[in-house]
Amino acid sequence: MSTLAEFIQGLPKAELHLHIEGSLEPELMFELGRRNAIALPFKTVEEVRAAYAFSNLQDFLDIYYQGAGVLLTAADFHDLAMAYFRRVAADGCRHVELFFDPQTHTDRGIAFSVVMDGLLAAMAEAERTLGITSALILCFLRHLDEAAASATLKAAEPYLDRIAGVGLDSSEVGHPPLKFARVFAAARAKGLKLVAHAGEEGPPEYVWEALDILDVDRIDHGNRALEDPALVKRLVREGKTLTVCPLSNLKLCVVGDLKDHPLRTMLDLGLRATINSDDPAYFGGYLGQNWLQTAQALSLTRAELVTLARNSFTGSFLPPDAVARHLAAIDAYVSRFPPVGEMSPKPQAGDNGGSVRQES
Ligand code: HPA
Ligand code: ZN
What we know:
Strand content: 5-15%
Bound molecules: hypoxanthine, zinc ion
Structural class: alpha/beta
Radius of gyration: 20 Å
Largest sheet: 8 strands, parallel
CATH architecture: Alpha-Beta Barrel
Distance between the termini: 19 Å
Order of helices and strands: HEHHHHEHHEHEHEHEHEHHEHHHH
CATH superfamily: Metal-dependent hydrolases
CATH class: Alpha Beta
Helix content: 40-55%
Shape: globular
Oligomer: single chain
Number of strands: 8
Mean pLDDT: 94
Low-confidence stretches: 346-360
Number of helices: 17
């Protein structure tokens, strides 16, 4: 492993933008299809992966909702989440705030309690066996109406002590945050944290609405906020966390090349950006690959990587004492890491990471 890859792997970090249904690998999709006697429109894992060529968000969503159809029982949700936790533990992830889409399941006749029982069991197991803490964010599907979102919030009532917040995902353009003003206000009144996907494909106005109308605690993606200097100023002033997803942006054609990804610009502007995987089974990389490929493409410095790791905890919904513990762990890690000069993240021929070890 290159020094850069090693440094990233060991750096304590959190994932704040992960759709658990988007961690369904084709192999598990087939296994659950067999277990539940659900026929898939694909014959092989290779065929599934070949279908993951997207030109926009909707292309992806169509196949993502279809894939989620193999999830029927609490055991399925448990196995899905445990596979993700095991994978991300290997990437040095210490805490995850995971999205789930209950409407994708309740609309197929799966009880809300089935989804919750499976996910909560996996979360407890991940903490016990892998040392990863986690929190749940219930996402409303924005292509459905607000009444459906309100019914989902009502179904969540018995579980509100185990749900950290609500979010807004699915098809962005044509479904502005304004459409969900009342259900977000109701969620806030119940003490839930609020986040919303905004500015992934939608215009800066959607980010303004997420702030002004929904009063969100974080913005998921937020790329297009950079088109509006007044909006950037507002996000910086309020220290609003952006949960940025580089490989997702590449796969969904939000950016044409990782070298053109706005993450470095976001940091330069003083935005509190974080790196996340979004839907890793579909976008070609879990948390560690998002970090490594972005660091290489943008030549991120060690100081910038440390800032990103710190942002992932300061932007989390963890209590202040837990945030402080993680920040101290980052400091301890950085001071222990071999005293190299600035790492050169540019890949060299025959090297998957690259490093320049100056004197020690
Ligand atoms: N954007 C919007 N909705 C989603 C996504 C995404 O990247 N992944 C799963 N639901
Ligand atoms: Zn997302």
